[in-house]
Amino acid sequence: ATTVGAYSAKFVKSSMFIIIFYFFAQYHGKTIYRFIKKVIQLPSQDTTLLGLELSSVMNVVFYSIIITAVLEGALFGIVVSFMGYNGLLFGIMYGFASLLPVIGGILMWLPFTIYEASLGHTGNALFISLYSIIVISIIADTFIKPLIIKDIHIRLIKSETKINELLIFFAIIAGLSTFGFWGMILGPAITAFFMALLKLIERRKELYNAHGKS
Q1: DSSP state letters, 101-140
Q2: What is the distance between the terminal CA atoms of the chain, rounded to a whole angstrom?
Q3: pTM of the entire structure?
Q4: What is the pLDDT at residue 75?
Q5: CA distance 148 to 71
């Protein structure tokens, strides 16, 4: 219990830092962009490419995380409401809990399963556990989430380099496993930066070939 409490406190703190970071990055975006442009001393078009790539992917990641949390919370809230619980309250709680890597959803549906089993409602307990694992964790989080990322990617992307939505999805997973909670930001950011660098190398190669032919 102590470990879970400490992990939850760390999660809340990290969530607050990410929200604050994202807010200030959006609010002071132009100032940050001008500062980075001055520091890295790249040609204007190269700096623009890097900036658009990172900002576009960060927007996709942020909104996909929020929308997925709302979706999973709604799925959980609807099913528990049919069992007599406050669907709105527990749906919101599940949405926040789902942001916790690996154990987030379990912290919500496992207590429900245990409580229903203790009341002798074995069918309800089994249904909640299977529904949460199959519908929410597997279908919603594994299969629907990439589709959400794809839709947001199409609506928000502004960069020249089109990053596949599955690459963003797996970048989030890899980032979480490597860096912890902050990995959902760092993983896609590193991937976007790497893809932008490849685009810059490709552009330089094209310019070099064109100059060589001339």
Answers
A1: TTTTTHHHHHHHHHHHHHTT-HHHHHHHHHHIIIIIIIII
A2: 70
A3: 0.69
A4: 94
A5: 10
